[in-house]
C-alpha cells in the first residue's frame, strides 16, 4: 500500500472524533506556519485585525505564524468544521495533520488528542510493516 494512502486513511478515520470529541483542538489552541499564499487563504480579510492583535506575525523568511488560541480560533473553523477543508490550496500542515511522512519516517503529532488516545494505532502498524520508522 502507498504510504500517503495509509496516512489519508488514518486522517479520515479520526474525523468524527475530531469534530465530536476533540472539538478541533488543533484549530483552536495551536499555531500554524504558513506561506504567504496559505496565509492569504486562511485569514483573508482578517489579516490586519489579526496582525494588530498579535495573532498573525510575519517572519523574516516570507512565512507567517498564525497563533490560534484565546480568544481566536482558526478563522475558517465553524462549528468545529473547517470551511476550507476541501480546498486543495489550504495550508500543508492542515492537510497532513496529524500524520507527517518524511522519507521513511512517519511522525504522529503528539499535539493531537486522537494520537494521545491511541486512535491511530492500526496505522502505526501498517507503516511499520512497510519499514517506516515511527517518531
Q: Total domains, how many? A: 1
Biggest β-sheet strands, sense, barrel: 3 strands, antiparallel
> How do the SSEs run, as a string of H and E?
HHHEHHEEEEHEEHHE
Mean pLDDT: 93
Question: Which percent range fits the helix content?
Answer: 40-55%
Q: Note the total helix count.
A: 8
Spans where pLDDT lies below 50 across 5 or more residues: none
- From the helix content, strand content and strand pairing, which structural class follows? alpha+beta
Numbering strands along the chain, what is their spatial order in the largest sheet?
1-3-2
Large-scale geometry:
globular
Number of DSSP E strands: 8
**Fraction of residues in β-strands:** 15-25%
Radius of gyration: 16 Å
Instruction: Measure the end-to-end span.
Output: 20 Å
